[in-house]
């Protein structure tokens, strides 16, 4: 579905999505890395559990919310990939820390 247009021999960053190792280009957003790895779902809705995935890729729709390094409700389209980061698809509502 998605195909990179840049140099296939470029440097890569390693991180995980739902415990699976993924590689992306430095500077990629987490949303871009999700899509490039074939993952179209970033979260499920709190009420019906319907799958949602990155849509606008510019911080407007909030469909790309994921958990990054145990912190929920992070916008995947605004977060650059980092070596060793742990990304988890977000299942329903996140608890608010008090
Ligand atoms: S994809 Fe719309 S806010 Fe991230």
Give a structural overview.
The protein is globular. It is built from one helix and seven strands, in the order ββαβββββ. With about 100 residues, it is mainly β. A hairpin with a 2-residue loop joins β1 and β2. The longest helix is centred in the middle third of the chain and has 7 residues. Strands 1, 2, 3, 4, 5, 6 and 7 form a seven-stranded mixed β-sheet that branches. The site of FE2/S2 (inorganic) cluster has 13 residues, from loops.
In summary, what is this structure?
This protein is mainly beta.
Which features does this protein show?
seven-stranded mixed beta sheet; 30% strand; mainly beta; binds FE2/S2 (inorganic) cluster; globular
Annotate the secondary structure layout.
Blueprint: E1 13-17, E2 20-24, H1 30-36, E3 43-44, E4 51-52, E5 65-68, E6 71-75, E7 86-91
Parallel strand pairs: 1-7, 3-7
Antiparallel strand pairs: 1-2, 3-4, 5-6, 5-7
Residues 31, 54-57, 59-64, 75, 77 line the site of FE2/S2 (inorganic) cluster.
The number of helical elements comes to 1
Strand count, sense and closure of the main sheet?
Answer: 7 strands, mixed
Structural shape: globular
**Helix-strand sequence:** EEHEEEEE
Uncertain stretches: none
What's the end-to-end separation, in Å? 41 Å
Fraction of helical residues: under 10%
If you average the pLDDT, what whole number results?
Answer: 92
Q: What Rg do the Cα atoms give?
A: 13 Å
Strand content: 25-35%
| Helix-strand category | mainly beta
Bound molecules: FE2/S2 (inorganic) cluster
The tally of strands reads 7
């Amino acid at each position: 579905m998605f195909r990179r247009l840049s140099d296939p021999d470029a440097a890569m960053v390693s991180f995980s999505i739902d415990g699976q190792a993924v590689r992306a280009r430095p500077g990629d957003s987490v949303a871009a890395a999700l899509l490039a790895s074939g993952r179209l779902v970033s979260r499920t809705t709190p009420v019906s559990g319907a799958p949602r995935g990155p849509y606008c890729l510019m911080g407007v729709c909030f469909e790309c919310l994921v958990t990054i390094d145990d912190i929920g409700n992070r916008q995947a389209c605004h977060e650059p990939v980092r070596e060793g980061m742990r990304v988890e698809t977000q299942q329903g509502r996140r608890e608010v820390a008090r």
